[in-house]
Structures are given as C-alpha cells and as structure tokens.
Fold this protein.
Amino acid sequence: MPDHPPIEFRYFKIAEDFPARPALEFVLGHVIDAKRDAMAASSVSEAVFESALVLIDGMDDKQAAPGAYPHFDIWMRFAVSHDDYLAQVADKDAAGDVVRFEIEQLEDAEHGIVGDTGDDDEDAAGTPVGTPVEPQPDCGEDGDWRVFIKSVLMFHYSAASLALQFTQGPLGGPIKCTCWVCYAEGDGDDLVMAAGHLGYRPAT
C-alpha cells in the first residue's frame, strides 16, 4: 500500500473546545487509514462508473445486491457499524463496555475533479477555506480526483459531525484526506474509552 500523507484535521469554531480531540483524531485516523488502504487497492474511475449504475438502479426502484458495486462501496460510502469497530478490537470482551460506535453517512457522496469549473463543482463548492461556515470540498491539486462525504460519528452520548474529502492524483497513488469536524458534543469520556480499545493512550 502507498504511504498516505497525514490526515489534515480542521475544526469549526463550535467544535474547537471539544475535550477529547486527541482521542477523536486517533479513532478517525484508525478508520480513515483503513478506508484509504481500501481505496488505494480499488479504482476511483470504476467507482464513478458504478455510481452512475447506482443512480440508474434508484430511478428504476431496483435494490442492488450486496457487493454488486464494490468500487462504489469503497469510494462513495463512509459508514462504520458497531460490529465493524469490534472487528478491529483485539480484546472484544473488554470492549463490551462500548455500547455504541457508529459512523452514519448523511447524504450521497459528491465527486469530481479538483479545479473543474463545471456546474457540478460550482454546486459542490462551499465557502473558501478558512471561513468556518461550510467545508470547502474543492481543495487539493488541480486534476486530482476528489470525493466529498458528510457523516456523523456517534458514541453512547458523545457525537461529532464530519465532512471528509479524499483526493488522489490522476495516476493513482497515495490518498490525501481532509477531515472537517463541523460540530462535536459530549465530554468525550465514552470516545476515549472506545479509542483505548484500539490502542489509544492519553498523553501524560
């Protein structure tokens, strides 16, 4: 697998004071890195092609069979279940105290090419980077493929609203990720506990 660059985390002002930011970034890093490895072994161009097939199926009220569009599932979805979390935990009995771990995708992914000035990019673009109102899904190198996904991360009583952009050069290779934490609530104790079962140790 290629060596992916570090994830760039950006926090909106409303999320800057979340008390468990290191644990949040550890958990997200764990999930995102696994996602990027899967993306690198897949094909974004095939995912874009399959997204058109998924759209056609939806218009015809067809339900695709599980695994029918593997590249689409890898590139255009960002969702993690509690069972997915437990599969990555070494001591599953100890992790029984984590009663909820879920990443739910909020809406269909947006995709395109960085620097493309077509209507699709104009609709997808938010406010400029540095303006903490909406994530800007078109940051990256011109010509890169990009996928932009909004999800929410939920624990027992803590939660965070996320917007993620994955970009990859036109010839493939490492995948960059920018993760905006748009909102976060809770004291983060449940998040720290869940992160601990994945190997997180708070700084002393």
